[in-house]
Every structure is written in structure tokens, then in C-alpha cells.
Amino acid sequence: MKAYDESYVEQIMYAQADMFMYVKRTFPNYDIDDFITKYMKSNTRRYLDHANMELASKDVKDLYEWFVKFDNYKPKAGNTFDEYKTGWIGAFYSYAQWYYNIPSEELVEKIPIDLLKESFSKLIRMDIEKAVKTVGKQLNIKIVRTKQKPLKMKLF
């Protein structure tokens, strides 16, 4: 069973990919590994795990500002890599979360950012679904068969 209805997948995937690229472009000295990890473990991403369309329909700047405000994100300078790879990792994690029905906070632990960066040149040649299945097979990740309970958004 997938995390939510397939009709939302592309919007959520592109919202995340575009927001990751926005962060890289706007704040080139941010530690991107730290940003991605904290975002994937955030309440903001947890709402997207449940197909919250209020967040998925925000523009990239508004989505980032929401994350900073409501998850108290404090950026730090450090490790960085190119914008395209950053966006692709955003799309990969979003699609993998939907496909495997695993909370994003667990997914980022099961599929480390370093693995995606190291495998990028091979995975980028595949469509996103094949890339997700390839990595999942290598890491023995299984699809969770239970449906997630709806998550009510709380304004902190």
C-alpha cells in the first residue's frame, strides 16, 4: 500500500525537489546534508508524508519559510553540492517515501544522503521509480502494507 493517493505524488515530489533547489540557490553556503536531514525529520515533511495539500501547494519560498518557522530550523554553513543533485535527491526521497510508505524521518536513515550522492551518476540515468526500486532492492527495503492514519495539521 502506498502512503497516499497517486494523484498527489508529482505535486509533492516537485514541491520538495524545487524547495531543495531553492535552498541551494538562495543559500549557497548552507550545509545541504544538514538541511536535508533536518527537513526529512521535520513536522513539515511529516505533513507531506500524509499528502497535506496546503503545504504541497505552497511556492518554494513559502514552504521553506514554513519549515524554518514551524520546525525552528537553524541553518549552518558547511557541506554543499550542486543544485541539480540537491533537487534530484529531494525528488528521490519524496517518491521513495510514497512508494515504500515509510515515514520520511525513517527513510533518510535507511537511505543515507551519502549513498545517493555517490550513486547519483548511475541513478540519474533511470526514471525516478526505477531509481527508487533499485536502491530499495539493494538495501532490502520493503513496502509497508498498512495505511497511515490521517494527520491533522496543528498550527504551533
Can you put this structure into words, describing what you see?
This protein has 156 residues and is mostly helical. The chain has helices spanning 9-26, 32-40, 43-49, 53-56, 60-70, 83-100, 104-110, 113-123, 128-139. The protein is globular.
Which descriptors would you attach to this protein?
single chain, 156 residues, mainly alpha, 9 helices
User: What is the mean predicted local confidence, pLDDT?
Assistant: 90
Number of strands: 0
Q: Per the principal axes of the C-alpha atoms, what is the gross shape?
A: globular
Rg on CA atoms, Å: 14 Å
Set down the secondary structure blueprint:
Layout: H1 9-26, H2 32-40, H3 43-49, H4 53-56, H5 60-70, H6 83-100, H7 104-110, H8 113-123, H9 128-139
Helix pairs in contact: 1-5, 1-6, 6-9
Compact summary:
The chain is mainly α and 156 residues long.
